[in-house]
Write a structure and sequence with these properties.
The structure is a single chain. This protein has 521 residues and is an alpha/beta fold. Helices cover 29% and strands 21% of the residues. It has 14 helices and 26 strands. The longest helix is centred in the N-terminal third of the chain and has 21 residues.
């Protein structure tokens, strides 16, 4: 039963009476929809969020973090390039933890593919690999492969539970997609979906924005809404019930993500960390990524827009950027730490303010598409909890091995799009084949030169072959795709490729090695 009078009173007290201004014009079903949406809101809490977030936003702008920033100290930093003598020990520790059912993964998958030009969740996107696998399938198969490897090394079957945080907009389609594809070979009970919260968009003076006459403009509460969602849906209890000790948290849009990376897990466990961040070295001072660093002695991510150019350009004695730890939303948390965050710290987290152009309904009920920001969305970030860690560590990896995000459609600015994601994966898999002793030949049977990899800032050829510099990054890589079911990170390919020559496109999957005829696809 709708008690509209009571709702009107609540809205009036909260200064939000305007959201019912078109009520008489609405059809019954529309009235019911708007009523349900508003009835579920806590207007006092919303007002408090708005006041604190806007006050904090002003404080941050005034405070200036530059003078208070310190780089990550070497003793808490592990590096895939600088600590090669320790990688095997970390990897072994990680596989041991996995084999004991102590490791879970948590995927942040609340985003729709709007910037990609599609109306469905990003994880369902196919970037155009020869196999046409989606991001969800690639990640699921990496989990399957890790479970198999851990069993092979330690002799017991194990499970890596996969927690998937969706938003109101992506929950249903994500669950349907997984069911339709039979969970990509994983067991249904080990894939756990849960939903992050939503918050209304607001004007600069704190009024709720209507998207349509019967609909509030709602947006997910940022990837840091994770912690509130973990509490609301008893996810940490589920982890504890399963005996999980640590969790790898990552974003859906990175095609190269090493899900539950044994080296990262092992490094964090051996360091006794309750919280860890995987980072890539910034390519240049002005690259628009947040930086993991200490501010007033506390670890956090400082957004690139908050760092002065002179600070961003500072270099250490070794010539590296001092503030080089680029955040890629890829984190390790111990379960006891997550429990503390959920129970104790989450209410202390403040929302960040993002000014946005928000489509809305004008005073006469007409649709308005603003050409400049007309309101704010409030969100929390997943890294907001670094400050509560007792033992925080950072693990630096090579971008070309582990980070290629998918954010834009191919038509936009040539960066972080389906083509760059596809090329990054195929270049990496090409390197795996070369490292395992395989060779590629052209149509005349001549061997193609190896691709140089940039490591430690120097260009080094992968094989001892010709040191051959690609003309530029737009060169199309050799088409080569290795199924995660065959190799998680390049291991175990020798039996498929060593001493052999291949024509591209080359696919290596659980059914063997396939050289595809160019137009036979």
């Amino acid at each position: 039963m709708m008690n509209v009078t009571e709702l009107r009173n609540r809205l009036s007290q909260a200064g939000q009476a305007h959201v019912l201004q078109f009520w008489p014009e609405l059809q019954e079903a529309q009235q019911a929809e708007l009523y349900a949406e508003l009835e579920a809101m806590d207007f006092e809490e919303l007002h408090a969020f708005f006041q604190k977030a806007t006050a904090e936003s002003g404080r941050v702008q005034r405070a200036g973090v530059d003078a208070r920033m310190e780089p990550v100290p070497r003793d808490v930093l592990g590096s895939a390039t600088r600590d090669q003598d320790q990688l095997q020990a970390w990897e072994s520790e990680g596989f041991f933890q996995i084999s004991q059912n102590k490791v879970a993964v948590l995927l942040l998958a609340g985003g729709q593919g709007t910037r990609l030009g599609v109306a469905y969740p990003k994880g369902m996107y196919d970037v155009g690999l020869p196999s046409h696998k989606t991001l969800f399938q690639i990640q699921a198969e990496r989990i399957l492969k890790l479970q198999q490897l851990a069993e092979k090394y330690h002799g017991n079957k194990c499970v890596i539970p996969w927690y998937i945080m969706t938003s109101g907009r992506t929950m249903e389609s994500t669950e349907e997609f997984f069911a339709k594809h039979k969970y990509f070979g994983l067991r249904k009970e080990n894939v756990i979906f849960f939903q992050q919260g939503m918050l209304p968009a607001m004007t600069f003076d704190g009024k709720i924005i209507l998207e349509e006459k019967h609909k509030v403009s709602m947006a997910p509460d940022g990837n840091g809404g994770l912690y509130r969602a973990l509490a609301a849906q008893n996810i940490v209890q589920d982890m504890e019930r399963r005996g999980v000790g640590c969790v790898h948290v990552y974003c859906v849009d990175n095609i190269l993500v090493r899900v539950a990376d044994p080296r990262f897990i092992g490094f964090c466990v051996q360091k006794g960390a309750d919280c860890g961040a995987k980072v890539v070295e910034k390519t240049n001072p002005t690259e628009p990524v947040g930086v993991v660093c200490r501010v007033d002695g506390v670890y956090q991510v400082v957004e690139y827009s908050e760092i002065a150019l002179a600070t961003a350009q500072r270099r250490g004695p070794d010539g590296r950027l001092q503030f080089s730890a680029g955040n890629i939303a890829n984190h390790f948390f111990s379960v006891p730490f997550l429990r503390d965050v959920v129970k104790v710290h989450e209410p202390q987290l403040l929302h960040h303010v993002a000014q946005k152009k928000i489509p809305c309904v004008g005073p006469q009920g007409q649709r308005v598409k603003p050409d400049k920001p007309n309101g704010i969305k409030m969100e929390k970030f997943v890294f907001d909890i670094f400050q509560f860690a007792k033992k925080f560590v950072v693990y630096e990896v090579l971008r070309e091995d582990e980070f290629s995000p998918l954010k834009n459609a191919d038509s936009q600015n040539g960066k972080d799009n389906p083509t760059t994601a596809r090329h990054a994966l195929m270049s990496l898999h090409h390197c795996w084949v070369l490292n395992a002793g395989g060779h590629f030949i052209d149509e005349n049977g001549s061997r193609l030169p190896a691709i140089p990899r940039a490591a430690n800032g120097k260009s080094e050829s992968i094989t001892a072959g010709v040191n051959y510099n690609l003309k530029d990054a737009n060169d199309v890589p050799i088409q080569c795709e290795v199924s995660p079911l065959v190799s998680y990170a390049g291991e175990g390919l020798e039996s498929y490729v060593a001493g052999k020559e291949f024509h591209a496109p080359l696919i290596i999957d659980e059914n063997g090695v396939h050289e595809l005829v160019k137009n036979g696809l």
